Amino acid sequence: MERSIGRIWFPALLLLLLGLMIWSTELATLAAGVGLFVMGIGRLEEGFRAFSGGALERWLKWSTSSLWKSLLVGIVSTAAVQSSTLVTLLGIAFLSAGLINTLGGVGLTLGANLGTTSGAWLIALAGLKLNMAQLSMPMLAFGVFLARREEAGWRGGGLALLGIGLVFLGIDLMKAGFSGFEGAFDLARFAVDGWAGVFLFVLIGALATVIMQSSHATLVLTLAALAAGQVNYDNALALVIGANLGSTATALFAAIGSNNAGRRIAATHLIFNLVTAGGALLMLHPLVAAVEWLAQLAGLGSDEHMLKLAIFHTLYNVFGLALTLPWALLLVRLLEHWLPDEPRPPEADGLLSERPRAHGLYVNDSALMHADTALKVLGQELQHLAQLSRQVVGAAMYLPGNLAEMSTVQLHQAVRQPVPLALREDADALYEQHIKGVYADMVDFMSRLDVSLLPEQQHALLNTTMAARDLVTAVKAARHLQTNLRKHIDSPQPVLREAYSRLREQCGLLLLELRDWANHADSDVACLLQDSDARAALFTSDFQRTLQQQLRNRELDGWQATSLLNDLNYLDRIRRYLLRGHAGLGQGVPVDEQQRLEQAVNLA
């Protein structure tokens, strides 16, 4: 029964709205205006980002090193793109990817709330007094033409023009819709006085913003209704408070798909709006009195309600900043305590089979919003996959769990000791438990990456994709090698046991090399790869020569020698693909140098 209700409520709501629009052309005009306005804001955001070539995002990322700087950036950025939602969501994405710190994210969010007041002033001063439809026509014409160009600059400019034109046309339709209500019925008759009216219209404003996902749209509706006399001034003030409260919904929805770092931005946005709304309701009469005083100071008439509403919106957000800014540093500490960063899994901690199933730790939905954040979390996830790959390869070769703490001498001794059955882990099960899930999360994340990529970003994404695939290939090669290792590690033939001990030792040396990569400068990576290739070539030559000698001496038969040669090939595949995967981690290796290194590894 509940499922049936869940399936029919949304279509029923759409049919009800359709019926209301058919019944009232004024309501249909108003709804069309809201739709065009929200669509225009979306195109404006998209166009500004494409036109700036990522300048907005880079500015946000580079200018959030201090609270005051990030506060100013939040104000100016929101005023430029006319969307506090975009700036807040970018803040969530950047913080979740580690591109900005918590202090910068808090300042960015607080500034975005103040920057959104610029829209109220633009609309109150000119938006409802000019012929917006006439202004929108050339913008729409040029916008559609330019948006079809392939060049990012022209396309971005066209989308921005198209967005502004849709916004202007939407405002004009909302004006027409509210003006048409005068001949049908007067919404002002439904005004509610006193605190009951305040709380009712706060709720209406919040719900309208949640539904339209735009506090700007709610604000424009409020100003249009106020200009048409369809809502009282006192109720309009409550609608403004509700619109600010409702704007937290988008950030909260984005936080669901983010990590704890990104959730700090959503928590800041929620705390700011709750504190501001609560304080404003407690101090509503003094705030209204302050608006009247400022209006008289500016020489406004008593009936200039639209400009008074813009003053109230600005005063409301300044009041919120005055309440929260003194506690900003304390808020940062509390957020980092309540929502700590997820700990990175240890390099070695008991048997891998006893650990929980691995999954993606860094890829999250909020990072999909921008290419820089998506590539950042993919790089972090690739490092996670590389760590797991080293651990699974080591376990597949029955190497000690504390290999990362061993010296080469200790490794030489350890691989020649019997391995207890309880410590022999199954490579197939480990692949399913720890590798496949992380790799699947990365592939799913990349398949949903729907943002424009610059050429260097496309190259970085390709490198990440190939590096992840190479790491998985290395683990699969270790699975194959374990098949024979499992059979011969306890062989009664000392020569056969020693041969597999040498293979295991060589694999352990490789893992130790990769462990030491983090302790070298980026410029040393090329030398490390060349040294690894040289050592591998010497080992392969010596192993094959020894194997031929043992075969001639009848210490091994042809079947055993063939198995060892196959396993030597699997070991070489493990080495090549692990090196390729780790070369793709982006540890500061220049793109052209990285390409040369990968080609060298392929030829080895």
How would you explain this protein's 3D organization?
This protein is mostly helical. It is built from 25 helices and no strands. The longest helix is centred in the C-terminal third of the chain and has 34 residues, at 455-488. It is elongated. Mean pLDDT is 82; it is low at 1-6 and 587-604. Keywords: Cell membrane, Membrane, Transmembrane, Transmembrane helix. This is Na/Pi symporter.
Protein traits:
604 residues; mainly alpha; Methane Monooxygenase Hydroxylase, Chain G, domain 1; 2 domains; 25 helices; disordered N terminus; disordered C terminus
Element layout with pairings:
Blueprint: H1 2-23, H2 25-52, H3 55-62, H4 67-81, H5 84-97, H6 102-115, H7 117-127, H8 132-147, H9 152-184, H10 194-212, H11 215-227, H12 233-246, H13 248-256, H14 260-282, H15 284-297, H16 305-324, H17 328-338, H18 371-396, H19 408-414, H20 427-447, H21 455-488, H22 494-516, H23 525-552, H24 558-583, H25 591-603
Helix pairs in contact: 1-2, 2-9, 4-6, 5-6, 5-13, 5-14, 5-18, 6-14, 6-17, 7-11, 7-16, 8-9, 9-11, 10-11, 10-12, 11-12, 12-14, 12-16, 13-14, 14-16, 15-16, 18-20, 18-21, 18-24, 20-21, 21-24, 22-23, 22-24, 23-24, 23-25, 24-25
